[in-house]
Amino acid sequence: MKIVFLTGGSRERALKALIDAGEDVVAVITPIPGPKNNRFAEVARLAVEKRIEICQIKKKDLGSHLKRIKADLIISAGWPYLLTQEEISLAPLAVNVHGTLLPKYRGTRVIPHILMNHEIETGVTVHFIDPHMDTGDIILQKAFPISPFDTTRSLYRKVLESEPECVLKAVAMLKSGAFERKKQDHTKASVYAHMRTPEDSIIDPEKSLKDLIDDIRACDAEDYPAYFYHHGQKLCVKLWRPGKPEDEKDLL
């Protein structure tokens, strides 16, 4: 089965898992790298190292590349654009790897909201691609618990660590034909596609600190820390555990 791998994120683990398992990855497609968008540098490096064709393209050129490559399976993992029905139809199978338990938390900016909404688990979903955002039939899901000390960075890491197993299992199911298409319950769906800005990190100082912990966890302490104003001055908030285990570096 010829596979084309689409990504705009740090999905080198999933790509490496496919390569190490002997899957026939014939091309890797990413956006054109830029100063603000090169999270897929390691994916590109891995493709070059393994002598896999890499195409760094504009959104409008995806269809022409898919027509030329003639893959049996499109795998999207962090691809930043919706595929059109015409693009989807250019391979017999097309699936997306999404870092939540669909139908909850559709979209590209979901992790802070998972923490803010006090969820106790999240995970990874592999689903068929349709022209809409994360609405296709589900092939498989893998859940993992959320620690009370998880942060946006630790949850993202856990998603990336879970993806390789899910991708390999989904490919095996698709190759064998031993899978069921599970329709999503759209009445339970939620969508978060808003690009987070520093202004989203403001917290209400009138609330108790205990009530604010999840809101603070949802704010990256380095890039967009939680903050409030006191006597006209902006004060940032950072939580940490001085005695946390060595293997929990990206947790609070």
Short descriptors:
252 residues; alpha/beta; 7 helices; two-stranded antiparallel ribbon; 22% strand; Methionyl-tRNA Fmet Formyltransferase, Chain A, domain 2; elongated; Rossmann fold
What does this 3D model show about the protein?
- This protein is of the alpha/beta class and 252 residues long.
- It folds into 2 domains: 187 residues, Rossmann fold (3-Layer(aba) Sandwich), CATH 3.40.50.170; 51 residues, Methionyl-tRNA Fmet Formyltransferase, Chain A, domain 2 (Roll).
- Helix content is 28%, strand content 22%.
- The chain has 7 helices and 9 strands; from the N terminus they run E-H-E-H-E-H-E-H-E-H-E-E-H-H-E-E.
- The longest helix is centred in the middle third of the chain and has 25 residues.
Helix content: 25-40%
Q: Pick out the low-confidence regions.
A: none
Give the C-level CATH assignment of the largest domain. Answer: Alpha Beta
- Which CATH architecture of the largest domain is right? 3-Layer(aba) Sandwich
- What number of domains? 2
